[in-house]
Amino acid sequence: MILEARSAGKTFRARRGGGAVHAVRDASLTARPGEFIAIVGESGSGKSTLARMLLDLIPASSGAVEFNGVALSEMNGAQRKEFRLSVQAVLQDPAGSLNPRKTVGRAIGEIVRLHGVASGGAAVRGKVIEALQQVGLNPPESYLDRFPHELSGGQRQRVLIARALVLDPQIIVADEAVSALDASVKAGVLRLLSDLKERLGVGYVFITHDLPVVKKVADFVYVMKSGEIVERGPKERIFTDPQHPYTAQLLDAALELDLPGTAEDLERDPLPLG
Fold first, then answer.
1. Per-residue model confidence (pLDDT) at position 1
2. How far apart are alpha carbons 203 and 101 in whole angstroms?
3. What contacts 25, CB < 8 A, 6 or more positions away?
4. Distance between CA 177 and CA 244 in Å, rounded?
5. Mean pLDDT across 177-193
6. Where is the ABC transporter domain (predicted)?
7. pLDDT above 90 (res 210)
8. Under a CB-based contact definition with an 8 Å cutoff, are residues 2 and 67 in contact?
9. Cα separation of 135 and 108, whole Å?
10. Which of 100, 132, 199, 269 is in Cβ range 3.0-4.6 Å of 137 for a Cys bridge?
11. Is 102 helix (H, G, I), strand (E, B) or coil?
């Protein structure tokens, strides 16, 4: 399965003759299961707009976003259903993404029922418990009846990851998914994402401004500036031999973040839940 942007652009036009804003210009990228790609850039660089295009939350103004070779704008019902199951999102604000009036079990269970992944109370409960186990919320039964305000920030982010995982996605688009977490909790969530890639073959499109994080987890990096992808390449090359002045500028400004290893440490170190 392949998620691709092909010369995709997004232009926002002012309602009262205020001109146009070209948020994304001629962007091309490829995401596959089992690959961890990162899109980096400063605030306003267009990376979150590109993420919304990849998720089909907003349409491309030019070019196309394709899933398995079919443009999202041209999908039939069956193709769109497959896309919705295969490509999921984990967003920055877990508190705002979870309904405060719904328990964890209900929030995830409704996704299971909506997409027809399981039917019947026992089967739905089983899928929810499995997803909570996968993200390190143990014992999972103890989280089913909790409300978002009863969870820490790290636990809420894990619930969002579980909500995405319950549909067995091939690719997760994560937009600033760890930026609101403190360093120790961030490290645990990043180790979790890396572990899910190794165990389940999940691929990621990871949107961030945090280059030290990218250095720890990404395989391939796209650098965005003013709506354009100005550099792309394997992580090792981007960090050791940047070709664009803007990439070098980002690297010079980045602070070193001491994160313990990723997937390899999971069997030795517990995952901090925050």
1. 82
2. 31
3. 9, 46, 227, 228
4. 26
5. 84
6. 3-251
7. no
8. yes
9. 13
10. 132
11. coil
Distance, in Å, from the CA atom of 186 to the CA atom of 10, rounded to the nearest integer, reads: 31
Distance (Å, rounded) from C-alpha 150 to C-alpha 156?
Answer: 9
Greater pLDDT, 84 or 257:
84
Q: How far apart are CA 183 and CA 62, in angstroms?
A: 39
Residue 270 has what pLDDT?
41
Q: What whole-number distance in Å separates Cα of residue 249 and Cα of residue 274?
A: 32
Report cis status (omega within 30 of 0) of the bond before 139. yes
Report the DSSP beta bridge partners of residue 89. 173
Architecture (CATH level 2) of domain 3-94+169-265: 3-Layer(aba) Sandwich (3.40)
Whether residue 197 contacts residue 203, with contact meaning beta carbons closer than 8 Å, is answered with yes
How does strand 228-234 pair with strand 220-225? antiparallel
Q: For residue 61, what pLDDT band results from cuts at 50, 70 and 90?
A: very high
| pTM beyond 0.70 | yes
Where are the domains positioned within the chain?
3-94+169-265
pLDDT at 269: 40
Percent pLDDT > 90 in the chain is 72
Inter-residue contact 232 to 223 (CB < 8 Å): yes
Distances (CA, A) of 69 to 37, 208, 262: 19, 27, 32
